[in-house]
Amino acid sequence: MKNLIMSSLFKQIVLLLIFITPVINFEAQNYKITYEVNFKPVKEKDLFVKEYMVLKVIQDKSIFYNSNKERIDSLVNKFDYEGASTIQNSFLRMKIFKNSSQESYTIGGNFNQFNYWYGEKKVKYYDIKKYGKYKEYIVNEAFADFGKRKWHLLYTNEIPINDGPYIFSGLPGLVIKAESLDGEYNFELVEIKKLTDQSELVEVKQNISKSKLIKNIKDFIKDPASHQINFKNDLGDSYKYEFSGVKDINYKTTNEYLSRIIKQFDNYPDKDVPIITF
Q1: 22-194 has which CATH code?
Q2: Are 63 and 79 a contacting pair, CB within 8 Å?
Q3: Quick check: 212 and 205 in contact, CB under 8 A?
Q4: How many distinct helices (H) and strands (E) make up the chain?
Q5: How far apart are alpha carbons 50 and 222 in whole angstroms?
Q6: Domain spans of the chain, in order of start
Q7: From CA 221, how far away is CA 87, in angstroms rounded?
């Protein structure tokens, strides 16, 4: 009887190991996950554009960034300057660093050649429930409020990576779709690749508060030409301007030029934080 119980217990353990081993192997790997982002860059226009962003997951850390600069650098390294020149400058020039052991994210970007990083509390989810099948995955759904937008999320525990696009992480599985309920932003999974690179992600340090950054950018938007300006885009093109202290014709034309640039993208994913792209 004792041998029968031990034999049964052994079989259960073996079956359990067979079941969980693929999950453990999946979690132990590092991944590069690509999302297609369809969004509306201008509030008053019904025009949508498409960009691609990458979630790089290495152990318990991840970083989410726009793949545009990476694509341009890759083509330039292959001396394909013509191919690089066909890539349009990206709007969503932002980075989100996440550490699963911390209670906040660190969001980064560039404003007037200032590389900023500020802290953001983790998103809270609600109305979590089963959804059904989406594409080839069995998914659950959840909702979240962030950046003065309401978001609908689909995630699957078939891919046991508790992360996702933008600021969305912490759900029990990979977020494969995140859509704002106003229909202006949609992040959707398009590719997952294992990374052979085993290098660790370096922890980034916050260097400004979110409230101060918002104030600085909004003050700039009100009167750009009264500031020193040093802009650079993904292709390496730059624009520099030094305010002379006199509101002359150069000041006026600079404000008109910067106003046109700012108006090209005024519908940010987080409505509170302007992103100026040159």
Answers
A1: 2.50.20
A2: no
A3: no
A4: 5, 13
A5: 28
A6: 22-194, 210-263
A7: 27
CA distance 91 to 249: 29
Nearest CA-CA partner of 239 in 248, 247, 229, 249 = 229
| Inter-CA distances, 164 with 80, 133, 226, 231, Å | 32, 18, 40, 30
* Residues 6+ positions from 134 with CB-CB distance below 8 Å: 154, 156, 176, 177
* CB neighbour list of residue 117: distance below 8 Å, 6 or more residues apart: 97, 106, 107, 108, 204, 205, 206, 207, 208
What the block records as the tokens of 227 is 């500031």
Where are the alpha helices (H) located in 29-170, listed in sequence order?
68-77, 81-85
86 CB neighbour count, 10 Å cutoff: 8
Convert the pLDDT of each residue in 49-81 to its tens digit. 999 999 999 989 999 999 987 788 788 788 887
What pLDDT is attached to residue 100? 87
Considering the chain, what is the average pLDDT of its residues? 87
Q: 7-16, 76-85, 103-112, 250-259: lowest mean pLDDT where?
A: 7-16
